[in-house]
Amino acid sequence: MKIRIGLGYDVHPLVPGEPLILGGVLIPHDRGLKGHSDGDVLCHAIMDSLLGACGLPDIGNWFPPGNSLYRKARSVFLLREICEMVREQGWNIENVDGTIIAEQPKIAPFVPEIKKMLAQAMEIEVGAIGIKATTNEGLGSIGRGEGISCFAVSLVFRDG
Predict the structure, then answer these.
(1) Cβ-proximal residues to 66 (8 Å cutoff; 6+ apart), any chain
(2) So what's the architecture of 2-158 in CATH?
(3) Which residue of 38, 50, 61, 70 could cross-link 57, Cys pair, CB 3.0 to 4.6 Å?
């Protein structure tokens, strides 16, 4: 059996007038993430971790920010496409793990809903998804509440 891991990272600024979407779930907050798509840093980091594990180019290659087709796209749907691509390459998704870094809002109450949404999009079990949230302890732009970032790792495997 061949096993690979991949690491993904994303960051977007928080701005008024945008919805805050993490893992495909709308989180009540006075600001949201600015991005070409919906700015969902969790989905973006997971996608890049999966692509990296498979040795494929990053999400900007597949969903270019200059392409109007992806303007305000729901990242959870883009994640679904990436998972299909991963499977077409002969890989199986064993698990993913993400850490969201944000001063506000508190993410923990939304983790079960986020995991359920991601499991549906990725067609894997809820138990194969780890989601954690932490703060940046007031340090840097994330610590000042200017944005939200996320790290994700994925494990993929194939027989032979």
Answers:
(1) none
(2) 2-Layer Sandwich (3.30)
(3) 61
Strands 92-101 and 129-134, how do they pair?
Answer: parallel
**CB atoms near residue 99 (< 10 Å):** 16
Predicted TM-score of the model (pTM): 0.96
Domain limits, the chain: 2-158
Side chain identity at residue 78, one-letter code: L
| Structure confidence by residue, pLDDT tens digits, 86-126 | 999 999 999 999 999 999 999 999 999 999 999 999 999 99
- Please report the pLDDT score of residue 40 as a whole number: 97
Residues 38, 73: contact at Cβ < 8 Å? yes
For residue 1, give Cα distances in angstroms to 63, 86, 107, 128, 158: 31, 16, 36, 19, 6
The CA distances from residue 158 to 1, 8, 45, 50, 99, in Å, are: 6, 20, 22, 14, 26
- Is 66's pLDDT higher than 90? no
